[in-house]
Predict the structure.
Amino acid sequence: MRVPEHCSVIGVRMMIAASALCTPPLTTVRQPHGGDGCGSGRLSVIEGIKSCAEKREVGAHHRKVAPELVVRDSTRSLL
């Protein structure tokens, strides 16, 4: 099979720089820094420790991040 003639390929949460080096360059969904949950996880652990020490419950935290589609040569329009 040939990309994108027979099928389109998209990477999600891939290394953006490495995606551009593929043949053909890989279309990728980019998430802003912190969108992978590392920052949120750190905050949750700290909040959990504090709440335990203060004998209180921990509330849920929700955070939305806006992804960006980086279009390269691994996809093509079907129209």
Observations:
- The mean pLDDT is 80.
- The two ends are 20 Å apart (CA to CA).
- The first strand starts at residue 10 and ends at 12.
